[in-house]
């Protein structure tokens, strides 16, 4: 019997990026992103009015300027590194697998990539998001988009979803290896800065509708295992234990908030506070981002540097994201083969 090359299709999904830093492309990206009901989880009409009449028209020109600062000769860093990981993982997995890449927002789009995969008649499809900690606004949205497409297929093969891996040993080791170039003793404080979420979104994880009281800062239980806040703290505990960091030397915080009702403490406020307390050098990890992007390179690297200097600090040092680190590729390989 002849074997089928690439009988298992792997779909990697990252968040997405504008096609270019032009105002038009940034506007299109923001519109698709912010109209997602899992991202802005408010009633439909209110979301449409807020996003399309207020947020996008005013934010697109400002965001386009920031994306121009982010853009490199290779284009968007997030897309570039995602494509590098796709290629490396495809090589590592060998002939029985073919790895595809899609973005939740913009291109390559989930519908177009899944249509390519449908035509290849895979026996099995494994879907892995590039978000280590589960959140409805990221992982949930990406997996829902995949299911919305596959449910229309006449022939549906075996499909497997990998929802999170915040505690995978290779994921942790890859971050630790990134940190080895920095001497922690040279820094007055260390921040573990995760992308923020509205408090109401983590509240929805629980049957009683409230995250508070589930001990998310110190333990993982059956109740909070899919709580974004709990898994962020769990990732931090695993990292700090191996780094030998005392609790007094680091802070878990959340960035990129839209209003005050988001997870706290806010990263920019912690940066400001540490400067006012006399810190001169701080080191910032960003363990929710597997590829460097606007939130790491610009928000942490540039904006937080300005805040820190303004209040007496000297240097904010970003620990680079996993990008195309070999251990990150090994982590994905292990998830696909063994989880």
- Rg to the nearest angstrom? 20 Å
CATH class placement of the largest domain:
Alpha Beta
Secondary structure tally: strands = 8
Outline the low-pLDDT stretches: none
What is the third-level CATH name, the topology of the largest domain?
Answer: Rossmann fold
Distance between the termini: 28 Å
- Principal-axes shape call: globular
State the domain count.
Answer: 2
Binned, the helix content reads 40-55%
Keywords: Cytoplasm, Heme biosynthesis, Iron, Lyase, Metal-binding, Porphyrin biosynthesis
Function: Catalyzes the ferrous insertion into protoporphyrin IX.
Binding site for Fe(2+): 195, 295
Protein name: Ferrochelatase
Give short descriptive properties of this protein.
339 residues, alpha/beta, Rossmann fold, 2 domains, four-stranded parallel β-sheet, 15% strand, metal ion binding, porphyrin biosynthesis, Ferrochelatase, heme biosynthesis, lyase
């Amino acid at each position: 019997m002849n074997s089928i090359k690439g009988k298992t299709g792997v779909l990697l999904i990252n968040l997405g990026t504008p096609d270019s830093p032009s105002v038009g492309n940034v506007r299109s990206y923001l519109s698709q992103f912010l109209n997602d009901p899992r991202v802005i989880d408010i009633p439909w009409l209110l979301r449409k009015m807020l996003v399309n009449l207020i947020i996008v028209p005013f934010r697109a020109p400002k965001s386009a300027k920031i994306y121009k600062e982010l853009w490199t000769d290779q284009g968007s860093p997030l897309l570039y590194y995602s494509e590098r990981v796709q290629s490396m993982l495809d090589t590592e997995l060998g002939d029985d697998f073919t790895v595809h890449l899609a973005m939740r927002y913009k291109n390559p789009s989930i519908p177009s990539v899944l249509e390519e995969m449908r035509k290849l008649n895979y026996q099995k499809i494994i879907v892995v998001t590039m978000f280590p900690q589960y959140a409805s606004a990221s992982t949930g949205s990406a997996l829902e988009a995949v299911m919305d497409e596959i449910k229309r297929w006449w022939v549906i093969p075996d499909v497997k979803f990998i929802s999170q891996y915040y505690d995978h040993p290779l994921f942790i080791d890859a971050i630790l290896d990134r940190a080895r170039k920095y001497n922690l003793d040279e820094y007055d404080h260390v921040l573990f800065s995760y992308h923020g979420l509205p408090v109401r979104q983590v509240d929805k994880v629980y049957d009683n509708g409230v995250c508070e009281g589930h001990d998310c800062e110190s333990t993982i239980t059956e109740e909070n295992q899919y709580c974004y806040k709990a898994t962020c703290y769990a990732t931090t505990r695993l990292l700090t234990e191996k780094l030998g960091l005392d609790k007094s030397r680091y802070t878990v915080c959340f960035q990129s908030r839209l209003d005050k009702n988001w997870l706290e403490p806010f990263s920019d406020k912690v940066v400001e506070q540490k400067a006012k307390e006399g810190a001169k050098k701080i080191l910032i990890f960003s363990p929710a981002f597997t590829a460097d992007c606007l939130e790491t390179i610009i928000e942490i690297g540039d904006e937080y540097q300005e805040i820190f200097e303004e209040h007496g600090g000297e240097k904010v040092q970003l620990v680079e994201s996993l990008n195309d680190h070999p251990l990150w590729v090994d982590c994905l390989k292990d998830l696909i083969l063994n989880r």
